[in-house]
Design goal:
Elements (H helix, E strand, L loop, with lengths): L2 H19 L13 H128 L3 H15 L4
Length: 184
């Protein structure tokens, strides 16, 4: 209860006591009051009420101003936070782009290295296959030479066992000398 409420309660009690004793008092019955009592009440209410209402309005205004200032400060902080967040987002996007580009370059370099290694392996396999083929060819030639020599020796042995004619012996000797580099 404010000052006005307390004052009205006291005034009402005083009027009630005055009526019951038959003395002087304030009549607060609006329809039955006289003009003087009404003017006094309005004056007292205006005088005391003005200060109370003024204080209440001033307090309310200061509360509103405080809330507005806090809201403005929060809005500024939110704007700064938004700006920082946007800047961080931009940096994060740039970093992601750099990482993506580095990954693509790394993948390309790895791909090229794998292809180069594969090409080297293919060349090495070709060389190995060629060497193996040459070795097998030489082995086959050597086996053929051994086979031919073996057959020739068998034939010579057979002819030696059956006997060689003088003409055949002479031709054999001439051929052998010719093969050795002599003249026949």
């Amino acid at each position: 209860m404010g000052i006005i409420g307390s004052w009205l309660l006291l005034a009402t009690e005083a009027v009630a006591e005055a009526h019951s004793e038959g003395g002087f008092g304030l009549n607060i019955d609006i329809f039955g009051t006289n003009l003087i009592n009404l003017a006094i009440i309005i004056g007292v209410l205006f005088y005391f009420g003005r200060k109370v209402v003024s204080n209440i309005l001033n307090e309310r205004r200061s509360n509103i101003e405080t809330v507005v200032r806090e809201a403005e400060a929060q809005a500024k902080e939110a704007a700064v936070a938004l700006s920082k967040a946007q800047e961080q987002l931009t940096q994060a996007q740039a970093q992601a782009q750099r990482i993506r580009k580095a990954a693509e370059e790394n993948a390309q370099a790895t791909r090229e290295a794998i292809l180069a290694r594969a090409a080297e392996d293919v060349e090495r396999l070709k060389e190995t296959a060629a060497r193996d083929l040459d070795t097998q060819r030489e082995r086959a030639i050597a086996e053929l030479q051994q086979y031919v020599v073996s057959k020739a020796l068998q034939k010579v042995e057979l002819e030696l066992q059956t006997g060689i004619t003088d003409d055949a012996q002479q031709r054999l000797i001439d051929r052998s000398i010719a093969l050795l580099g002599g003249e026949a």
